[in-house]
Design a protein that fits this description.
With 207 residues, the chain is α/β, with parallel strands linked by helices. The protein has one domain: Rossmann fold. Helix content is 40%, strand content 17%. It has nine helices and six strands; from the N terminus they run βαβαβααβααβαβαα. The protein has a six-stranded parallel sheet with strand order 3-2-1-4-5-6, sandwiched between helices. Helix 2 packs antiparallel against helix 9 and helix 4 runs parallel beside helix 6.
């Protein structure tokens, strides 16, 4: 994990299928609350959790690049945003512990804060080698529902080494966005404009 003087680096992984304003809100508030110097966005190569067919990695990576670019330089520490290809380089199913260990090898002077949505916290103890994930990083769960915050803190305390970050909730679902797009619906309020433009230009998620 690095020493106490190590660079504070957030790790935000996900399918990002597509990245939406909820993801941006989570990242922005984590940068501010944790005083991150660096935030690494890690698009999943092959998810162990989702049965939904993912768009090709390159397209999701490009959408992440467009979505998170405005956050570069954000926060008190002028946080640097990096879009990582690490899970594509590792290949196969993308397990968080493997990603963290590879990042630790490459960036030994960085201290990792793994960002997860509040909905993931309650199933975190089912993750592959989750106890090792807790040793390799500080897990930071971002509350998505205001009324679940107390439950989240209680569950986090049982796991240990987990922070719960209170945030201004932005409830958005990638599944809902894909379904709306398949029906020709308007999702402009749910996506960064650069991502919406990319989806339209490439005719993504259409029925």
């Amino acid at each position: 994990m690095g020493s106490k003087n190590a660079v504070k680096t957030g790790i935000f992984g996900g399918a990002f299928n597509p990245p939406h304003i909820g993801h941006i809100n989570l990242a922005r508030q984590a940068i501010e609350q944790l005083n991150l110097r660096k935030l690494v966005i890690v698009p999943t190569f092959e998810s162990p959790h989702k049965s939904t067919r993912l768009l090709p990695f390159e397209q999701r990576r490009e959408m992440c690049k467009r979505a998170f670019a405005p956050l570069d330089g954000a926060g008190n520490c002028n946080c640097t945003i990096e879009i990582s290809d690490i899970e594509r380089e590792l290949g196969g199913v993308s397990y968080t512990i493997n990603t963290l260990r590879e990042l630790s090898k490459r960036c030994p002077d960085e201290r990792f804060y793994l960002l997860i949505g509040g909905d993931m916290l309650f199933s975190f103890d089912t993750w592959y080698k989750y106890e090792s994930v807790l040793k390799e990083s500080t897990v930071c769960a971002v509350a998505r529902e205001n009324d679940s915050f107390t439950d989240m803190v209680e569950f986090a305390n049982k796991l240990g080494r987990v922070k719960v970050l209170p945030t201004n909730v932005v409830e958005v679902s990638s599944t809902d966005i894909r379904e709306r797009l398949a029906k020709g619906g308007d999702v402009s309020a749910l996506l960064p404009s650069e991502v919406a433009d990319y989806i339209r230009e490439n005719n993504l998620y259409s029925a």
